Amino acid sequence: MAQVNGVRRQFVKAAMAAPFLERGEEHALAVRWKDQRDEDALHQLASAHMRLVIALAARFRHYGLPMADLIQEGHVGLLEAAARFEPEREVRFSTYATWWIRASIQDYILRNWSIVRGGTSSAQKALFFNLRRLRAKLAQDRNSGGNSAMFATIAKAIGVSSADVELMDTRLSGPDISLNGPVMESDNQGSAERVDFLVDDKPLPDETVGETIDSTRRVRWLNDALTILSDRELRIVRERCLNEESSTLESLGNRLGISKERVRQIENRALEKLRRALEERYPVAALHASL
Questions:
Q1: pLDDT, tens digit, for every residue of 19-75?
Q2: Based on the domain organization, do 2 and 16 belong to the same domain?
Q3: Which of 100, 222, 264, 284 is the most exposed place for a label (fewest CB within 10 A)?
């Protein structure tokens, strides 16, 4: 650790010792890199702006991530800025690079601050990085009201919903909790983990497989038993019991040219025939079949 800190201090010292570039020098280096892909020009341009990277990285040190990693990500943003910079626009490189450096650091923080992905939109990203500042500012105002009023004010300022503000505030108020973290200890049973108390209402894999096999078997039994019915009985049973949308006695009677009472009688007789057939051919089916 001491060696790492020493290397970090040397790096920061070297960055701070790099000479400032005049506007003309900066422009010349940018042109050499863009037109000739001069690696030495890129190195000079990047070295002269590493103090900018360090300064921007320091603004995000309170998110609990290593400062060295923030500087490294800022350096990635600096190189991205150098690759995209257009010197003919007469804009200072530091002005252009600041956006890319900050964006690279912020993306790194969003990827690594929590195991739960957040800040997936520009509004959510703005909420993540401005919530604490806005909340602290509003907290100084005694007339700001309670949390609900504060969340509404922040939501309006950033352009998100109050629910999003409340959720982000909850996430920022505490670290992630591992499901494998212990919640109690026992001399006899060892430690229990949070995951041990999660309840899954879904059936177990063996129950799912068993239900699939039983369903396939019941369908085979039923299709075999249906062969004993006449065409009219089969039609009535299908439209009354097997289709997703059951037909009424009256509508079915109108299509068949019989009364709804007659349809009911044929249906009862057909179901009784099916029950007897299942009991005779598949005794176990009487315990499972449901019509």
A1: 888 889 999 999 999 999 999 999 999 999 999 999 999 998 888 888 889 999 999
A2: yes
A3: 284
